[in-house]
Automatic annotation (TrEMBL):
Signal sequence range: none
Domain RNA polymerase sigma factor 70 region 4 type: 20-57
InterPro entries from the UniProt entry: RNA_pol_sigma70_r4_t2, RNA_pol_sigma_r3/r4-like, WH-like_DNA-bd_sf
GO molecular function, one term: DNA binding
Protein name: Integrase catalytic subunit
Organism: Candidatus Symbiobacter mobilis CR
């Protein structure tokens, strides 16, 4: 039963790659709060916290994840 609970929980935190990149840009470039990012992108604050936290744990910054020209 634990696997079902985990799957349901993570489904709520999944976002599109576009929204993920926008969240990281808003955090790293613009210095927005997680609440501001969540509101701007229409996603949960928990999702923002999770993905920004993962990026920071992986020592990523906006230069590492931004598209190259």
């Amino acid at each position: 039963m634990q696997g079902v609970t985990d799957a349901c929980f993570t489904d709520h935190l999944r976002i599109t790659v576009r929204k993920l990149k926008d969240a990281l840009r808003l955090k790293f470039e613009d210095g927005k709060s997680h609440q501001q990012i969540a509101h701007a992108l229409g996603i949960s604050q928990g999702a923002v916290t999770q993905y920004v936290g993962l990026a920071m744990a992986a020592a990523l910054d906006w230069n590492a994840v931004s598209p190259s020209p």
